[in-house]
Write a structure and sequence with these properties.
Strand content: under 5%
Number of helices: 17
Helix content: over 70%
Distance between the termini: 126 Å
Order of helices and strands: HHHHHHHHHHHHHHHHH
Largest sheet: none
Radius of gyration: 35 Å
Number of strands: 0
Length: 361
């Protein structure tokens, strides 16, 4: 008959097993702590190197950190950022997509993916990632980061000629953006690029309401009013800009152009018959000079039958001012068409281009 084990032997066995379990747990914890410590050491080293602009070396440190703690998102994100700065976009995207799979709402991850897509010319994909970044979660400065992401999206949409989408984003931004002159000025400029000068004017006026000495805001408001076609208002805004920043060559040049448009505008309401005639002659001279300069620059002979007809109109004496003004206007349009065919047209804001565009039909 077998002898049953003694109670003391069983107790010792259980105690030994418990001690072994505790020792194993302690060793495992120590091992993990050691790996975490080494990972943090490499991570901090990478952060310092990245701050010094040494991205390849930083990436190597982040890889080492990941080799110890493969699942830590901080290390993977830092590596992705370093790779992005190195323009190693394919590997950066792989890491970012892994991070997004784990946390789809991360604002920073979506922002970086948007930048990568934009750099690769994938505009629609980039726009989607930007929207996810705008509505995503940010651990630091959420409002500022969302506004910055929306600005990047707007810049992308304008660059790719998607003005309606850019305008929609700008209107959303205007509704939620905090007060600030610099922010309003930036929005004003973007509204102008998006083809909405009235919204631009509102943004610039908001900036001026914060600081009436803001010369940049007055200058921007003048451009918005110019685009609207309110040249007298543009003149007043430019004068205010000069009061805030005397001697600005850019503002002085633009003010001179606006004065020229006001003085020669044949599309202005309520001008007398005599003024219409004088303006038509002055504008005819400028249109002829513009065509001749264009022909000379392109190496073509300046004398043309059309030019001779224009000279004859300028040399003749008007018996009927209204009829003469109408003849001058018709010749201006012919000269402008000839200039367009020979050399193209000057920028849309050029005073002569503005004046021709405003000719009565």
């Amino acid at each position: 008959m077998a002898t049953p084990p003694r109670r003391g032997t069983l107790t010792y066995t259980l105690l030994a097993l418990a001690a072994l379990f505790v020792a194993t747990a302690l060793l495992t914890r120590a091992y993990r702590a050691e790996r975490q410590q080494r990972a943090e050491m490499h991570f901090r080293s990478g952060q310092w190197l990245a701050g010094e602009g040494k991205n390849p070396e930083a990436a190597a440190e982040y890889r080492s950190a990941l080799s110890y703690m493969h699942r830590d998102p901080r290390y993977r994100l830092a590596l992705a950022l370093a790779l992005y700065r190195m323009r190693n976009w394919a590997e950066a995207q792989a890491h970012l997509l892994e991070l997004r799979n784990a946390d789809p709402a991360s604002g920073l991850t979506n922002l970086m993916l948007a930048r990568l897509a934009a750099a690769g010319g994938r505009t629609e994909e980039a726009a989607q990632f930007y929207r996810s970044a705008i509505h995503g979660l940010w651990t630091e400065k959420p409002r500022e980061n969302r506004i910055a992401a929306r600005f990047e999206l707007i810049d992308l949409l304008l660059k790719t000629k998607k003005r309606k989408q850019a305008l929609a984003q700008l209107l959303e931004l205007a509704a939620e953006a905090p007060a600030g002159a610099a922010l309003q000025r930036r929005m004003g400029g973007l509204f102008l690029q998006a083809g909405s000068p009235r919204d631009a004017a509102d943004a610039y006026r908001d900036a001026i309401g914060i600081d009436r000495r803001d010369a940049e805001a007055w200058r921007g408001l003048a451009e918005a009013e110019f685009a609207i076609g309110d040249y007298r208002a543009a003149r007043r805004s430019l004068q205010q800009a000069l009061e805030s920043n005397p001697g600005s060559p850019d503002v002085e040049r633009r003010l001179q152009q606006v004065e020229e448009i006001i003085q020669l505008d044949l599309g202005a309401p309520h001008i007398s018959s005599a003024a219409r005639y004088r303006r038509s002659r002055a504008l005819l001279r400028r249109a002829l000079a513009s065509l001749e300069a264009c022909l000379a620059e392109s190496g073509r002979p300046a004398g043309t039958p059309l030019g001779a007809e224009a000279e004859a109109l300028l040399q003749g004496r008007a018996k009927n001012r209204d009829q003469a003004a109408a003849e001058n206007i018709a010749m201006i349009q012919l000269l402008w068409t000839a200039r367009r065919d020979a050399c193209g047209l000057p920028p849309a804001g050029d005073p002569l281009a503005v004046l021709v565009a405003r000719l009565p039909q």
